[in-house]
Amino acid sequence: MQKRYRKLAKISLALVYLVIIAGAVVRMTGSGMGCPDWPKCFGYYIPPTDISELQWQENRSYKQGQVIIRAESLWVAKQDFRTNTAYNGDNWTSYDRHNYAVFNPFHTWTEYINRLAGALAGLATLLLALYSLNYWKERKTVTLLSFLVVVAMGFQAWLGATVVYSVLEPVKITIHMIMALVIVALLLYLIKTTDTKVQKHIYDRGTQGFLWVVLGITLIQVVLGTQVRQFVDDQIGLVGENAKNQWLQDPQLQFYVHRSFSVLVVFINVILAYRINKRKLGYDKIYWVLVLIFLEAVTGMAMYYLDFPLGSQPMHLVLASLLFGVQFYLVLEAIKSNKTLKSL
């Protein structure tokens, strides 16, 4: 039972990271408004592939909620009906969530795939919660946290809707990203807490506190990074997608803070790795952390000095989320080593 539960939890975690990757691609390609409504896309469960499908047509059947673009605005069908030879405005109501009415098939399907990945991850976490009922008699915490993950996924979906309705408001994008990391943390906790293998790590109180500090610094750096990303998005809107050499021209203060903070991230993690190695505490995943930080620094420098090579932006974001995950898992290992010590 425990092996199957942990396997499902790992699958759920992998799918959540897949959603993070898909979301990073959405941001890189500027596809965040590819579907201007939620949860459907232009009022369809399967979005259109051509602009003609979103233009009013005579002698065509429309279903309630389907969307057309007319006079540079979105219009929603009030009920099921079939058009005649002339447009009848009584059959339509103006979409009032926002005034964004642009159709780009690439952006639409990029965002749609992102939503499909989210739905798949949501289904996996729901199955995980149902399977956790086997723990109810012996370990109620596992069941309760499993269902909390489902609630968190639902909240994350709602946050995604608010991001769309706000036309990609920066604060909401940041909250959306942080919530994804919270879900990662919950799943990692469930994976670790249901692990029955003998803990081989040596407990060290100072190191455990150090791990929490490092994790907090990484989270701050992620938030700063989302703010820098928003500045880049704004620059793209001003100078265009092809002028990559101008995306970080005259950056704002948060860019310099983010860049300087990265030095602290490297320094403090190297010190932590030295401490763990010197005291032979057995936290081998600290080397994963160092590799991820190195790759994170490489992608960051590539964006600044090489004018945003293809894939550097989503890779930078995904590496940051992986870094957070590994660091949080190290914290869990330290906590479990403490419990193991107390039980001896």
Concise synopsis of the structure shown:
This protein is 63% helix and 5% strand. The chain has a three-stranded antiparallel beta sheet with strand order 2-3-5, with no helix packed on it. It has a two-stranded antiparallel ribbon with strand order 1-4. The protein is built from eight helices and five strands, in the order αβββββααααααα.
Structure in words:
The protein is mainly α and 344 residues long. It is built from eight helices and five strands; from the N terminus they run αβββββααααααα. The protein has helices spanning 2-29, 105-131, 140-165, 170-193, 205-239, 253-278, 286-305, 312-343; strands spanning 61-62, 67-70, 73-77, 81-82, 92-94. A three-stranded antiparallel β-sheet has the order 2-3-5, with no helix packed on it. Helix 3 packs antiparallel against helix 4. The model has no long low-confidence stretch (mean pLDDT 90).
Spans of 5+ residues with little confidence (pLDDT < 50)?
Answer: none
Cα Rg: 24 Å
Strand order of the largest sheet: 2-3-5
Distance between the termini: 26 Å
Query: What pattern of helices and strands is seen along the backbone?
Result: HEEEEEHHHHHHH
The residue fraction in helices comes out at 55-70%
Count of DSSP strands = 5
Largest sheet at a glance? Answer: 3 strands, antiparallel
Morphology call: flat
Q: Give the mean pLDDT.
A: 90
The assembly state of the depicted protein chains is single chain
SS class: mainly alpha
- The total count of helices amounts to 8
Write the layout of secondary structure elements.
Blueprint: H1 2-29, E1 61-62, E2 67-70, E3 73-77, E4 81-82, E5 92-94, H2 105-131, H3 140-165, H4 170-193, H5 205-239, H6 253-278, H7 286-305, H8 312-343
Antiparallel strand pairs: 1-4, 2-3, 3-5
Helix pairs in contact: 1-2, 1-4, 1-8, 2-3, 3-4, 4-5, 4-8, 5-6, 5-8, 6-7, 7-8
